[in-house]
Specification:
By secondary structure, the chain is mainly β. About 5% of the residues lie in helices and about 40% in strands. It has an 8-stranded antiparallel sheet, with no helix packed on it. The longest helix has 8 residues. It is globular, with a radius of gyration of 16 Å. The model has no long low-confidence stretch (mean pLDDT about 95).
Amino acid sequence: SRDNAEADFGFSGTQLDTTSINTFLGAAQGYCTILYDQSGNGNNIVQANASQQPLLVLHGLNGNPTLHFNTSQTMNNPTNFPAPFSVIYTARQTGPSRGRVLQGVSNNWLLGWWNGSYGQAYYNGWVSPSGGNPSNSNPYVYSAEGTGSNSSIYQNDTLLYTNSGGLAGPYGLSLNGGEASDADISEIFVFDAALNTLDREF
């Protein structure tokens, strides 16, 4: 919260423990400092600078906890995720700024949005065509997959493009870094495998 008090919160069943968060916050607003890696590998996504921490909205996208970013707010993880990889996240741009939403930290990698367009994928090379689909404020689930010899982008589990135009996984992950957006992000998953259809639809 903005009084600089911090607390860690876990889950109630399979859902974030929003009751405990509400109790902690009271009437105050809460901002996110750490997204803990649920795999146990320690690949947390962090932001230590209070002025760059996104706002936590407990009932955001589809009624789920959501991080609301403006263009000065970002969270980062430095881990390299080489091919094979899968990255899945749910987000939307809220405007007016519509740059990137998810990108690499140490390589040129992006998924979802770029330069005012959606349905975009660049994995150190274009997997989608660049531009051409003007952004809107609808939420989308984007999935990136790479085997090392082929890469794909899915939008709401519909395959948009698959080719060998860009083959790299993200070297680090930045939520709303670089060419930033006004955006909401509600969840992100990273796997060290190219998921099949059944696993991707879990």
